[in-house]
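Weekly structure sync - notes
Attendees: PM, LS, DV (DV joined late)
Agenda: review two folding runs queued last week.

Item 1: First target. Sequence and structure tokens pasted below for the record.
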Amino acid sequence: MQVDQFYINGEWVKPFSKDTFALVNPATEAVIHHIPLANQADVDRAVSAAKQAAVSYSETTVQERIGWLTNLLQIYRQRAADMTDAMINEMGTPRSFTEAVQTPCGDGHIEAMLEVLADFEFSHTSPRGGSTLRHEPVGVSVLITPWNWPINQVVVKVLPSLAAGCPCVLKPSEESPLSALLFAQMVHDAGFPAGAFNLINGNGAVAGHHLTSHPDVDLVSFTGSTRAGKLVQTNAIDTVKRVVLELGGKAPNIIFADADLPAAIAFSAQGCFSNAGQTCDAPTRVLVERSIYEQVKVGLIEATNNTQVDDPQKTGDHIGPVVNRRQFEQIQSMIQQGIDEGAELLAGGVGRPAGLEQGYYVRPTLFAVDHTMTINTEEIFGPVLCISVFDTEEEAIRMANDTIYGLGAYIQTTDLAKAQRVAKRIRAGNISINGAAYDYDVPFGGMKQSGNGRENGLYGLHDFLDIKAITI
């Protein structure tokens, strides 16, 4: 792994650009690396490598791709500890959480994609039998990933691209380059052909802009904010690229009176605060049926106050810092705005937790809110939980859907018929009932301004394939 280089056309190369980004460890506020930032020449070199590989890589057999992915799975598992360390250092995700949740996303998704490739029919007859339908690679893909779930977001884009036969250029967030660089070395060691996978680091304004508007790019898969997603779509218009977006969220979490309240309260706090609240589908809006509101409020106050914040290098059930100073200050501003708007501060508040004066640590915070308050409608991306009250099932559904987002939603009830009924009416791509977790083969993506397309397994593969009909 070469921190000061890019991976292009099967080798580590020095960037043309002299610009760098100071990568800061969010727990110590110390600069740990200076990461090169790609300029237009770097982008052109990476895209050219992918384009040159497009024909030969698209003609590789499924068995060849399965072989390379199997090698990758083996290598990933051998270097899982290195991947854990990389994510701890770049984004401050705590060691125990990283080992149990973040790092396993890599091999979990590789396994799921191998299962898909083993059974997927790239060529088959049409439903009435008169034509042959071929699923062919879209072409050169650009993959732009965020920092909050570093390796997860890398693999859910790289794997379907390579499995489909699309050579790709990965631009990870400059805030989380270490895990992506390590993954690039794994791809190299797995034996993928030169040009099939390329990596550059860079910022959105330069590298991101040139990648998403590049005439030789056929598909852009982007995960990030809704604001940035709109810019990606705009950049792609002139060449009518396929654009796959996984964007922001403000997920509702409905707790009905018949829920298992201890379990629902524990899930609500953990779901919001884990990963320091930096999860796009985190259940940040808790909607509680009036008859149990006070009981849930008391339980969430206790759960919030009991959420520990500590050094991410330590093992244990605690959360770490948020990713950088800008994010820390934005969260502080949103907490203060909640106070200024008149929300009832139930736990936490502005400032760092006691005893943590260095590092971008945020106090887990709980507000009782009016449904329309800013902190209850805008994505905060930090450990801030809002609680509000509803009277009827109909009102709960209306409040849940009263958002521009539609990524995730959560329902807590022991009445599974009611859970299914409510789930059908909520406009969100992924709905969890009673804290159930999605498997790696389950499609993930949003509705409304949370994006389009789907990631994971078979459904992620489809986004990188065109359908050709051949009729004789």
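Item 2: Second target, run right after the first with the same settings.
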Amino acid sequence: MVMAVALVLLVVGTILFHFLSPWWFTPIASNWKMMDDTVNITFVVTGIVFVAVNLFMACAVFLYRHRQGRRAEYAPENKKLEWWLTILTSIGVAAMLTPGLFVWAKFVTVPKGATVVEVVGQQWTWSYRFPGRDGALGSTDARLITPDNPFGIDPNDPRGADDILISGPELHLPINKPVKMLLRSKDVNHQWAVAQFRVKMDMVPGMVTYFWVTPTRTGHFDVLCEQLCGLAHFAMRGRVVVDEENAFQAWLSNQPTYSETRARVAGNASAGQALYVVCSACHGPQAQGNQTLNAPKLSSQAGWYLATQLRHFKQGIRGASDQDIYAKQMIPMAATLADDTAINNVVAYIDSLPDEHPRATLSGDPDRGKSLYTTCAACHGTAGQGIWSTKAPRLAHMSDWYLARQLHNFQQGIRGTHPQDFAGAQMVLMAKILPDERAINDLLAYIHTM
């Protein structure tokens, strides 16, 4: 009797939870309402089976409970019942699968005139590519991927010259226009997913997968990777911004083409030396850093990282928090560099300066720090050398007091909270694995041994 009542309460509680639960679909923002309809059909079919099976079990437990003088009847076969179960099960499975097949057929049948966008996944970020005026994307090859050609575009393919490159994880799309999404991965399996669009698709190295979608609501929507892709999988996030047509075209026109990125002139160290005079007042003539002035060591740091940070200071992406007082000081200093040419020149000069191992200012246990660094190594490299493809700067031979401050800033939300600081947002999540000051000091003590 108790078991029968428990089964009935289980059914009633499940039904109430289903209809009263606040965890439901996010408001849809695309044409794929059919996805919701398919899920609802699945809920109905499985719900009916769940209720029927559990109520049948409750009835069986109650009606055939043990009674004095009553013996169980042994009936191993019942062909009539088996036929009914087979037929009803087949109908239920068909009811769940058939709508999905129709939706899938439509999901991969791209309407004519759809805008084409390529999605590129890699550990642990996204980038995008639009065709240029010729309407065709240039061919790519993984063997051509370099820091100067992160998309691996074939320079000998004329179709790729006007391809529009989006090197960050934020994608803009026009509202009420179909978009064909081409997806490829540079390294491991990923899955591009936007919950409000009701779309997701696997990205397999060596293959190009695709689907199409029509955004129907303006706004900002999170992009998630929903295929386990390594240690920082949980931090692989991006954003889709759906704009009105005019705003979308304005955004697209400000993005560089492949030919423009190839035409960029390399930095000139001689020209950068004159610009560095201002920087040297704090960072030192050899870019060795000065803790008294809260200026970190710059020499031996990756040029791409220094250039990115200078642009972020100029754009207000770094120093966005009023609590980040030293970054606030850097904003007017970065503004003295008039353009990208000036930034590239000063970075080239810093790159020409000798590397010196700074003295340790913190004490910790490097043996314990070695185990903590295992997580960091996935992005920053086993020797702390930094990896451009994961947007992770060099840590070895850098100022330990500065690294400690940045870890604290990430943990406290002082750095990495600006909407455009996607790499910083990843570090906000990663820094939380260090539970206390001792862990930070141990980690930095190990990094200092590199």
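Discussion on item 2: Strands lie at 115-122, 125-130, 164-166, 170-174, 179-185, 190-194, 199-203, 209-213, 219-225, 237-243.
Action: LS to circulate a short write-up before next sync.
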